[in-house]
Amino acid sequence: MKKITETIKIGNKSPPEHIAESIIFLKKHLDENLTHDYASVEDPAELWQALKERFDNQREVNLPHALEEWKNLRFQDFQKVEDYNSAVLRIVSLLKYCGNPVSEAKMMNKTYNTFHKQLHFVPKIYRKCGYTRFSELMVAVMLAEKNNELLIKNPNSRPTGAKAFPEVNATAIENSERRN
């Protein structure tokens, strides 16, 4: 790896075999379209500089979109906690890449402040729990979501007062054991 980093420096005096290794390595890891664009470049430093000029602006290009996504992100807009969590982590990662890191406290406050207004008491409960990390908060909210799904599912699985249906497979196994 040290050989490659030396060969991409402008004015390098690397041996020809290191230069050849570096150009092969760099071209091997290029997207197919880029391989065609830079097929004639044989100097690793020149290739590196061309790629740097072409792609080094991605932070500036992506920053406005990432900031807009962060500004419009609301917990209440997601059906599942897992989807919200993924969106937050994706946006935070992009903001960090763009040079605007988001603290754990900001991530948690974004979550607390964007619950639906009918659930105004829920953020208070989570704040009182004293979570210090966004991941801890998400685990607690996901657990609450799963428990809520079970609470809704259980009463609807059969009418009140009715006995649970026996498992079909369990009955079939018992009957086959009796025959033997």
From TrEMBL:
**Which Pfam families did the record assign?**
Retrotran_gag_2
The source's superkingdom equals Eukaryota
Q: What is the name listed in the Swiss-Prot or TrEMBL entry for this protein?
A: Retrotransposon gag domain-containing protein
